[in-house]
Structure formats: structure tokens, C-alpha cells
Amino acid sequence: MKRLKSKYLVVAAFALLSFMSCDFLEKEPDTELTMDIVFDDKNKVEGVLGYVYNGLPTPGDYTHGLGWSVWGDELVWNRLVNWGVLSVQERLFNGTWNVATAPSWNMWNEYPKRIRHAYLFQEKAHEIAGLPQETIDRMKAECRYLACYYWWHLTENYGPIPFIPEMFSTDVPLAEMQKARTSFDDIVSYLDKELLAVSELLPDKYTATNEYGHATSIMALTTRARMLLFAASPLVNGNSWYKDWTNVDGSQLFSPVYDQQKWIKAAEACKLVIDRAEAAGHALFIAYNKDGSIDPFRSTRDLFFTTESAGNPEITFPMTNDLGHTNFEGYEDLCITPEFGDAGCLGVYQGLVDAYFMSNGLPAITGYKADGTPIINEESGYSEEGFTTEVTKRADTSWDEGTGVAGEVTPAGIWKMYYNREPRFYTSVSYHGSWYKVAERPFDFLCYGKDNNHQWNSPRNGYLVRRKVYQGDNSKNGIWYRNRTEWLYRLGTSYLDYAEAVNEAYDNATGRLEALKYLNHIRLRAGLRQYTINAVAANNPDYIHVDNTQDAIRNVVRMERRVEFVSEGIRWFDIRRWKIAESIPEMNGYLMGLDWDCTDINNFYKRVGDPEHNRVWKKAYYWMNIEISELEKNPNLVQAPYW
Questions:
Q1: Which end of the chain is more exposed for a tag (fewer CB within 10 A), N or C?
Q2: Are residues 556 and 568 in contact, defined by beta-carbon separation less than 8 angstroms?
Q3: Among 227, 207, 211, 209, which Cα is nearest to 273's?
């Protein structure tokens, strides 16, 4: 029976240590570095820790290998792109994703390597020169947290997984690692306790600059809270879809019984995060005007271009590694047009354009008819008829990316669909006629216009994503704004997580008021009227009435999450845990938008469906499949349902 040789470990270089599976086990001792050598050397110890960290997802990869921003209904590639590593995206779109398909970033194989090294570190690391025991203890706590993060991330994507943490000890026979899936609730219960415990071992913040980005108690508590939010949600809380999902021995993997206590636990966990984070100095990022008022345009734009050291207290889980194409450069490569050296092929769904509020805080579109025609909210002032005749100006901003002039939001002559929308729309979406700062001109998305060459490197439905794209970046000339920090979590995430959880946990006015309190913090920054359950006039300048019901609050929370978290890798998980993919038109049919083929401005502004982007959704896609080759290795594994 093969065993891991506990005295051997390969260390290739700092942060690039590679676990070699069974081939590694057969190597002779003189070809390996002994454990003593590894954990007696400061650089190699830090290298092992770096390897454990390097498995974390990078936000720039949400549109590539991970795909979370393009799998749902946020961002959309031009489908003429040579998909290559995007094969899962292509298969997800056309309904041919199957058990033989593995994502380009195969976390099923990669994350266990990081988990194993996290456990090795905890087992073997000890005080040495340059690393006193206090530092070693903290590094072990970091590994303990990261193991939990990877365990949960696997579960969040694959559902119940083979989960027995002690099996990653260095003395466990390989044959004993071929375990069946563990029930979802058992995994969550273990990680809940573990994350809470490790949060007490980690600092809330670090003071040394070179420690920024290391695991903190706030990260651990946020991971725990988001896990409990997922665990309380309809996909996994009493969902009859999975009542027959069992192991080979018949053991059940999901409880078919709804448990209201899960929402209560999620709400308490989310509130704990907020309290601890705010006590540690975290707060929403807000850009102010000279008179002390909030500038909603710069607030929602500069959130992504301001580091903590430069005054952004909102980031609670920063990503400090620079992985080039999988970080912000790779993302912007898709959003900057060929004129400036990049692809210009990453658009946004028409449904996202529709989701942004009007400047008065009301939704523009309330739904769609059977033929896809939008149902317009007449009270909002929204229109899809005609063009504006004047420049739109706002006194509450110095933002200059609307026309090139500070305070001007839209030029004269734009289609009314884009008129009088909320600030987040203008800082997130580039549309025909919006200002292209680096080119010092408006965007031109007409067929064969300056920004639509009618090839793969153009936006397919008349939009490019603007959010998180620094408008002065120029790939052609190597000009990048680098003083920015990517993140996995921010305080605004926790605010809306709590708003959702507390409304679901307590079906009463107290719970609903608490939900609106934190939702309104987000809306205040975005320059929108606040929600209230009190009776107010329809034209009240400060408040919008919302019914005092759980359903009404659920609706406004979900609408807010839709537009607040664009490009942050959250929407895909919201769609899944709410079980709403089947109800989203553009995930079950044609990509909607403006006519990519149109050269005539008079006909360009019509909603059309693109038959080349015809998506097919299947119930199986709520969980990632285990690749067939992995099932063949382990006879105790069962595939997720509907595959």
C-alpha cells in the first residue's frame, strides 16, 4: 500500500512548489529535498506558504478560465472569439457541456494540492532563524484558513465533495483517500466551526506593508458568512431537486427539509463580519465633493482604482499578486478596442443595461413579455423612443468621462434608453455615443464604425463593459494605471449579504428595516433615493416607498445586488443559489441588444436577438461536473444530478 513519504517534499521555487501526485511518490530519496531541509530554511518555508496562497482565484480570471462573470448574465464575449481555453464557456452557452469537459482552471485537481500543503505546513513548520514562533503560529493559522477557503470553494462549485480533512495527513494510505462525497450540511458544519475558530487566531489587520494581503480574521469571518448565506439559500435549503442525490451506499447528500434556522445563522454571521470589520476601520469607500457631499460617479468608479493606502477602507480581502493576464490587464485586454492594441470584444448583456436604475432610483424595466419586449416602468421616466436634444449635467460630480467635460453626464443626441440613468450605469457600461476618454471621442459601435470592425474583436450587441476599466489605459503604448487593488471581498459585499440574510431570517418589520438600513448605505453612495416602508409621496426627493413585506424587500435587495456587483464574480453564484437561471431570458435564448450588422443609425437602436448567441441552459449546470476520468479513478464517487 503506497504512503506519502513524510520526509520528502519538492520545492521548485518561491511560491511555485508543485505537488506531483503518484509519480512523485516513486522518486528516490536522493532526488528530493527532505522535509527537514524545507522547513529549516526561511525562504523555502515562505515558498510553501506562497504556494498555498497562489491557488486563490484572481478577479481578472472571472472572464477567462474561471468564467464567473461570463457564465451568468453579466458580461458576454463576442462568440467569434477563438475560444481555446474558454471551451467550457462555449459548451455552457450551446448546451454541450458534458462529463468529459473540464474547466481550464481545474479546481477539482488543483485545490487539493493547496489543501495538502496547507496541512503539511501546519504539521511541519517550526521556529527557525528569521521566523520566530509567534510568526510561525500566525502562518499556520493562515494555512488553516486557506484550507477552509479551498474546501468551501470546492463545495460551492461541485456540491458535496469527498471531505475528510484528516485524510490529508502525510501518513494516510492513498487507497484510503478514495472516499465518497460527504453531505453538504456536514461540510458546512465543520467549516463553520473551523473558520470561527481560526478567526480568533488571526489579526483583524496588519500594520506592516509587506504583510498586506495575508489572511485576517475579517477574511475568515467573511468566508464563513458567505458560506452560511449560500447554505441557507433555495438551491441547497430544502430543494426537492436533490432528494435522490445519494452516495453508492444510499447515504443522502442534501437534506430535502427546509431549515429556517440556516437563515438566522447566516444573518448573525454577516452581522458579525460587519461589526468586526467596522471596528477594525473598514468602511464604504466614498469620494466627496469639495462641499462635503458625495460624488456618486467618482465613488462608484474610483472604488476600483484606489488602494487602501490611498484611502480605500472598503477592501476586506485584497489580492496583491500580479499575475499579468489573469489580473486586471487580462480583463482590460477584452475591453479596450483594437485601435489601442486590444480585443474590444467583452460586452454586457442587454438585461444588465435594463437592470440599472434611473437617476430617480426607480427601475426602468420591470420584466419582459413572452416575445422579449420589455415591460417599461412608466413611473420611472424611462423611454426607448427618440434622442436627447441637450447635454445632461449634474452638479453633484466632477466626473469627466461622460462627454470629456466635468459634470456632463451625457451629450445631446444619445438614444433615450441611456438618458437619465443612475451613476453606476455610466461608470459600468460603454454604449454608442458614450465618451471614449483615451480616444477623445464618443464610442462608435455601428457596423464598420471605429469600434465595430464586424469581426471577433468587437462588441457583439453594441456595448463594452466599462466597469473596472481605467479609461486612460492604452495597451498599444504600454500605459496602464497600476495603483489599484483587486479583491475577493469588500465591505459592500457584506452589507448586501446581511441585507438579504436578515430579511429572510426574520419575517417582520424589524428585520426588514435592518435590511433596508444596509441596502440604503449602498444606494446613498450611488446617488439614489433611499427605500422606506413608510408612506411617502411618489415624488419625495429623498425616499421611495417599498411595501412592508418580505417579498418586497427580497425584490429590492436582489435588484441592488444585480447592479452593485458587476464584474466581481458574485452574480453567477447568486443566480445558482436563488435557482433563477431558467427565468433569465438571455440564459435561455438569444443574446439581446443592438444590431451588430447595422450601418444605419436610424435602424441601429432596435432590440434584436442574435441567433449566433443562442444560449441553452440545463439544470445540470447548477453544479460543476466531476470529469469522467476522475470518476473512473474513484468507484465511490457519484456524478452530480442531471448530468
A1: N
A2: no
A3: 227
Q: Which residue shows C-alpha cell 485576517? A: 216
Q: How many CB atoms lie within 10 A of CB 476?
A: 13
Contact of 484 with 468, CB cutoff 8 Å: no
- How far is it, in rounded angstroms, from Cα 215 to Cα 11? 23
d(CA 152, CA 225): 12
Q: How far apart are CA 215 and CA 221, in angstroms?
A: 11
- Note the pLDDT tens digit of each residue in 481-500: 988 888 999 999 999 999 99
Q: From 92, 260, 248, 205, select the one nearest 625 (Cα to Cα).
A: 92
Which tens digits make up the pLDDT trace of 412-468? 999 999 999 999 999 999 999 999 999 999 999 999 999 999 999 999 999 999 999
Q: Any idea of the CA torsion for 218, 467, 543, 583, to the nearest 10 degrees? A: -90
Burial class from Cβ neighbours inside 10 Å (0-12, 13-18, 19+) for residue 444 reads: middle
Look at the alpha carbons of 467, 412, 359, 369 in this order and tell me if their dihedral is positive or negative.
negative
Cα gap 35→29, rounded to integer Å: 11
Contact 498, 274 (CB under 8 A): yes
Single-letter amino acid, residue 262: K
What is the rounded distance in angstroms from the CA atom of residue 639 to the CA atom of residue 636? 10
Bridge pairing between strands 530-532 and 543-545: parallel
